[in-house]
Write a structure and sequence with these properties.
This protein is an alpha+beta fold. Helix content is about 40%, strand content about 20%.
Length: about 325
Amino acid sequence: MTVAVLAGGLTHEREISLNSGRRVAESLRTSGIQAKVLDVDAQLLQRLDAIEPDVAWPLVHGSIGEDGSLQDLLVLAGVPFVGTESYGCRLASDKSVASSVLAKAGLRVPDSTALPQTLFREVGVGNILNLVEDRFSFPLVVKPTQAGSSMGLSIVEDRAQLPGAMVDCFAYGEVALIQQYISGREFGVAVADLGDGPKALPPVEINATGPYDYDARYNPGRVEYIIENDVDETHKKVMEMAEAVHESLGLRHYSRTDIIVDDDGEAWFLDVNIAPGMTETSIFPQAAAAMARQQDRSLDDIYLDILKTAAVSADEGQK
């Protein structure tokens, strides 16, 4: 089998994507797969034609990699791929849309509002931020609706910090999600279909020194990742929520959901990623490795199972 691992692209998360692509390709090669990493650039379609892959594995983070665009391109090119189809990508990649869909499905999501940059220019920054101050209680979270790796995210303690948070947010996206801050224990919960339907992998608890921002995610030392051998009621709750998110948004093959459990033990949806990071500090590989250890297998086996599931679904789609 030949697999084209798609990485890079002109996004804010380019270097993380290239790192993810290299690591997944190395893992697949260990399993005997011919895996080639292709940058998403002007030569992509020519390279796909040249290698004629059986399956593509898109690992472009953010922007075109997760909003369904790259997936639609692969459909046009007739290349089966690992991961969610474009419809689910469009739902999941916009944090405001995903939260609305999941709230309607009965999941608990923080109170929020989504405001485009153009509205601030037309109505006036001060006027809108006054309404935000009246509507919400501090602290608040401000983040772009379509950016990953906590880029452009701020935790706002008072009204005076709001303008700066909006500027940081709009540097990474055109629409800001202003969201009620929920304090508690934070978990990253991976879901994977290893051949018998999508199931949650062991939850990864995130214990960060300071905010769990871009630096904390990708530079070792600021975060302790905790994976328990025994599954308690909190773990069951977040696993059930991650599976519900995966199903409600129509996701496929694998995903990762970020969840907060508050002091009352209630789980809150924060975000979902259809092309999660696969770097040495990323949550999905840690969860997959923990699952592999429980089954006396390897991380390479887990990635191979995901690939096989995608290949089977592609074969069934062609029949």
